[in-house]
Design goal:
By secondary structure, the protein is α+β, with helices and mostly antiparallel strands. It folds into two domains: 99 residues, Roll (CBS-domain); 176 residues, 2-Layer Sandwich (Heat Shock Protein 90). The chain has nine helices and 15 strands. It has a five-stranded mixed beta sheet with strand order 10-12-13-15-14. It has a four-stranded mixed beta sheet with strand order 1-8-7-6. The radius of gyration is 27 Å and the shape is elongated.
């Protein structure tokens, strides 16, 4: 899990000759002060200093001895470590870098878990909608394609979470879109899906699972906006040393009161949706160095564009 750099807060480090008066800047804020001795770090807690004169030495107070975490420790290390009333010291080269507030780490983990759960639910809902739409298509392979995709969605989401610490990999966006279209076309029916892919596209850098998920979300949103008729276009071309993937529909457009907040989590015009799709999609694009923007919306339709960085030519 994530290293602790974003969680380390300044902490007061003192030697074993220090007094309560020396520790007062931290204790007065309800935070511990830290006293070092060999490879152990002791916490001086505010409640242990109550009632004593400021000249009282810290080593004469009840101290909480802890083994500190290193600078390369992870969130998981914090959650399984011993701590002094919610604080863990972080040390590098026998020097105190600061301390971590355990409750802050726990809150962040809960938020991450909720985001992952919401993303999984959103993607599975899209795939299950595809299954429901194709129940009667017994003579085609569309059902099996959608089933296979549904089974892959959860695995790919967790692959994406593992990939977040790695670099994006090279891939051909045209081939990816062509593969997606093979099962998206029957999924959006009776809405028509048209795919146009420019020839000789350069290779791009991206997370495959994230890009697939992003494009599926955009196409499903377009399908929902159109209802039972209309046209969705998936265009892939090169522009400004990038590869552009555009999803365009000929629907009624996004309401004006929604446009400015369209990428904010919780923004939706659907009574049974949570409004996380576009927020999640833009975050996925940014993680791989790409961009996702609303290029146009109006009474003649809506167009979203994804721009992907190409692999430098050697």
């Amino acid at each position: 899990m994530t290293v602790l750099a974003d969680f380390v807060e300044p902490a007061l480090e003192l030697d074993d000759h220090a007094t309560i008066g020396d520790a007062l800047p931290s204790l007065a804020l309800g935070k511990p002060a830290w006293v070092t001795s060999e490879d152990r770090w002791s916490a001086v807690l505010p409640r242990h200093a109550v009632g004593f004169p400021l000249r009282r030495r810290l080593v004469d107070l009840p101290l909480v001895d802890l083994t500190p975490l290193g600078a390369n420790a992870t969130v998981a290390d914090v959650l399984t470590s011993e701590h002094a009333e919610g604080y863990v010291p972080v040390v590098e080269a026998e020097r105190l870098l600061g301390h971590v507030v355990v409750s802050r780490v726990e809150r962040s983990v809960r938020v991450i878990r909720a985001d992952v759960a919401a993303a999984i639910a959103h993607d599975l809902n899209n795939s299950l909608c595809a299954l429901a739409a194709m129940v009667d298509e017994s003579e085609s392979g569309a059902m099996q394609s959608a089933v296979d995709h549904t089974l892959r969605v959860a695995e790919r989401l967790f692959t994406l979470s593992r990939d977040s610490g790695r670099d994006p990999s090279p891939l051909n966006a045209g081939d990816l879109v062509r593969d997606l279209a093979s099962w998206l076309e029957p999924t959006v029916a009776p809405v028509k899906l048209v795919v146009r892919i420019a020839p000789n596209l350069p290779v791009v850098m991206a997370y495959r699972a994230a890009l697939e998920r992003l494009l599926v979300n955009l196409v499903m949103n377009a399908r929902d906006a159109l209802g039972r008729s209309g046209l969705i276009r998936l265009d892939v071309d090169g522009v400004d040393n990038q590869v552009r993937v555009a999803v365009t529909d000929d629907g009624p457009g996004i309401p004006s009161f929604v446009v400015e907040r369209v990428f904010e989590a919780g923004t939706t015009t659907k009574y049974d949706h949570y409004g996380i799709g576009l927020a999640s999609a833009r975050a996925s694009a940014q993680r791989m160095g790409a961009s996702l923007d609303l290029a146009h919306t109006g009474s003649n339709g809506t167009r979203f564009e994804v721009r992907l960085e190409t692999v430098p030519q050697k």
